[in-house]
Amino acid sequence: NLRMTVRAEMELAYLGEILTPSRCGRMDQCCAFGKTPTLMRFDGPLLQTTSLALPSSTIYMVVVDLAASKDTKAILACLNKAYPFASNEVETGVQRLLGPINEDITERACKAIHDGKAEELGALMTEAQKHFDQLAMPA
After folding, report:
1. How does pLDDT run across 83-104, given as a tens digit for each residue?
2. Burial (Cβ within 10 Å: 0-12, 13-18, ≥19) of residue 55
3. Which of 23, 61, 87, 136 has its CA 20 to 30 A from that of 119?
C-alpha cells in the first residue's frame, strides 16, 4: 500500500515512464482505474478523468493481439508535428482527428457504454479507425 491516491500513483508512474526511451504518454495510465470505465481528457500536459456510469447491460469485448510491430516514438513524432500549428493539409487533418472528430466519437461512445449498446460501441470503434486511417496515416 503506497498510501497514495490513484491520481498520485498515475503521476508518479508517468514521471518514471517519460525517463524511458519509449517516451510514452499518459494514456497507459487508464489501467490504474482497474475495471472502472474512465473517460480521460487531455489538454496539453493536463489530464482530467471522469468515472463513467456502469452500463445498464453487459458489454463483452474481445481484445486481439495482431502480432504487429509499431514504433511509438515515430508515431508520436509524426502526430506531434501538427502542433501547435498545422503547416499543411495533412497536419490540419491530424488536428481535426485528435480534436473535434475524437471528441464527437468519444461523447457518443460514452453514451453507448452507459446505455449498454455494444453494437453501437463497435460501430464507433470502426468509425474511429476509418478516420485514423484517413487522417493520421498520411502523417
Report:
1. 999 999 999 999 999 999 999 9
2. middle
3. 136
